[in-house]
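Q: How would the structure tokens look for this protein?
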Amino acid sequence: MSREKPPELSDDDVRAISCYRSLVRATLSIKGSLSRQVRKFKLSEAQFGMLELLYREGTMTQKEIAGELGVSYGEITHLVEKLREKKMAARRRRAIDRRFIVIGITSFGRWYMEYAEPSAVKIIADGMKLLAAEEQEELMRLCKKVEEGEKDEG
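A: Here is the predicted structure in token form.
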């Protein structure tokens, strides 16, 4: 059985693929450690990410949460339900405009984050401390540039 040879790639395409693979591997190296740590606290990584966002930013609409986490509105609905079942998040109507439902962290969720977040932050910080502060700033700038370029094209 013979396989067809894939089409030749330009140097730009090869470099782009290599860059993408490097970015994914770097992300996965930190993400794997973080995921193991978060599972110790009986949360999925997505649940922890949403809880951390609410802990840091306060109440938000599901649309705002979806935008911040870069996931679909439907995924947020599922995450909210899971966190509600664990008594870590709650839905309520916005006081100013009752048409809007906001999601907030509960006192139990806050207590939980005060306990769990430091170990998660340490994992991320340890992974990123291999880069100098200036390099971290440059990495954030470049990632944002790619992210915004994707939004413009999509």
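Residues 11-40 form the longest helix (30 residues).

Strands lie at 60-61, 89-93, 101-105.

Upvote if useful.
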